[in-house]
Amino acid sequence: MERVRSAVYLEEKIARGFLWASVLVTLGAMLAIVFHILEQGLVHVNWTFLTDEPRFMGKEGGIFPTIVSTVYLILLSLAIATPIGIMAAIQLTEYTQKGPLVKTIRFATETLAGIPSIIFGLFGFAFLVLFMGFSWSLLSGGLTLAFMVLPTIVRTSEEAIKSVPLSYREGSMALGATKWQTVWKIVLPSALPGIVTGVILSIGRVVGETAAVILTAGSSLNIPTSVMDPARSMSVHLYILAMEGISMEKAYATAAVLIILIFIINTIANRIMRKMSSNLAA
Amino acid sequence: MRKIHETIIEKLLLFSAVVAVLVVALITYFIFADGLPVMQKYGIAHFITGSDWHPLDKQFGLLPMIAGSFLVTLGALVIGVPLSVGCAIFLAEIAPKQVTRIIRPAIELLAGIPSVVYGFYGLVILVPLIRELFGGRGFSILGGSVVLAIMILPTVVNISEDAIRAVPREYKEGSLALGATHWQTIKKVIVPSARSGILTAIVLGMGRAIGETMAVIMVVGNVATLPESILDPIRTLTGNIAIEMGYAAGEHSQALFATGIVLFAIIMILNFMVTLVPKRVGE
């Protein structure tokens, strides 16, 4: 009896040890990556690096055009995906919730979320770059990225809309508002923080995407002046710097900028989410 | 007047919802239209079982890449799943509040870090480390597996944790009341009850690992041959497309779309497997 009991306690201890270890390894991996990149990269990040043109394929100079291109890609893809995503979410939550069409739409959204980015890249290349004749451009890249983030926006918007209490809608309808007036004036404003969180998380995805961007927007280092110009995002720039061995120093610096950007994006998303949950609780 | 206004909006909403369906249909059509003809011409068997990839000599064997994708994914699961499920159990069952407050943002940051940054870290740290510890060139299945294990962590942790938290309290209380220790309860009651959710998490993580491109390219060496050990370099299906798409033309380009079809098929099978997982125990 005594032996059985001590075996149980030993197992308990080992198990706890394993669980703690798995968390520590995870935290350790995260810290190792972030600290290494920031430590090696931040020393090369300064105002000139952010605002200067790259020279010799990025071996010297800064990353200004890639920042501009990244911002354009974010604006373009979200300008397309946000309205479509929110409207799709409204349709799925407020208008029709059942039936074969809704099932198909849900299946398609889930499928879209699972498709690897390189497939999006291939598709963007075949459909937008070649078939539609947009060539390697901000437009091709922006559209491809819009398709990629669409499921995220639909899903987060749906969650946000669903969390709006039913009584809000009933109150509005009772006052004689139409269905759409209720959605537009009551439901959407209440769901806004959740929707914004989804959009912000999508920005993170656009910033980090490489494979699909390189196949659709190209890798030109010039500052794009129209949506038909090719462009190189920061992630693509980092990939090329590192893989072609152009400059490890600049690669570290670019990676550090990317990590800081993601850190800012996550922090903003968390702030909004926390505010939202405290609002709902109130 | 108001009636027309509302009808137009409803049409617009419906159209937006259908966009996702259209995009999926377009993707399927364009990948297959470009990849299928060359697959039919040389035979599907040539693509799936051929082990020589010499696209300029009309040798389109994708077996090394299929093997590469699966091996590197398997490695990622072997390393990543115990870690992730461990983290999930810890977060749901054991973690004090303050610890959770540190771990959760850390996992979110891990989820947000661009894949190319992981690849870069693998290239500058992991590859030289493997080279020093085990010999060889360092670009290897092992390197790819470690990088992917970290990358799938957030997905598997989040979904498993939700599954574990969804286990009814009574199960746990009943087990503890019968005198089981906390770990016995976790092992015999909580994890088995959350089994389907954890399985879903693993399959989704697997999908992410197979679909990952840039991070893998940077650490696996991209040699299109069948590997003999985990220290050998490999090439994945995704890498095959990304590396050669830039300069491929004619049948070579079509063969890359065929690679896309194979990848697409694998992902669809995985997605289908997720729907097969029963939602609750006993269903």
Automatic annotation (TrEMBL), chain A:
Domain of life the protein comes from = Bacteria
Where is this protein found?
A: Cell membrane
Task: List the SUPFAM superfamilies.
Answer: MetI-like
Q: Where is the ABC transmembrane type-1 domain?
A: 67-269
Q: What does the record list as GO biological process?
A: phosphate ion transmembrane transport
Q: Which Pfam families match?
A: BPD_transp_1
Entry's PROSITE patterns? Answer: ABC_TM1
Q: Which UniProt keywords apply?
A: Cell membrane, Membrane, Transmembrane, Transmembrane helix, Transport
Q: How does it sit in the membrane?
A: Multi-pass membrane protein
In which broad location class does this protein mainly occur, judging by the first location in its UniProt entry?
membrane
What are its GO cellular component terms?
plasma membrane
Which positions carry the signal peptide feature in this UniProt record? none
Ranges that cross the membrane: 18-38, 63-90, 111-130, 136-154, 183-203, 251-269
**CDD domains referenced in this protein's UniProt entry, alphabetically:** TM_PBP2
One annotated GO molecular function: phosphate transmembrane transporter activity
In the record, the note on similarity to other proteins reads: Belongs to the binding-protein-dependent transport system permease family. CysTW subfamily.
Per its UniProt record, what PANTHER family does this chain match?
PHOSPHATE TRANSPORT SYSTEM PERMEASE PROTEIN PSTA-RELATED
Protein name as it appears in the record: Phosphate transport system permease protein PstA
Organism of origin is Desulforamulus profundi
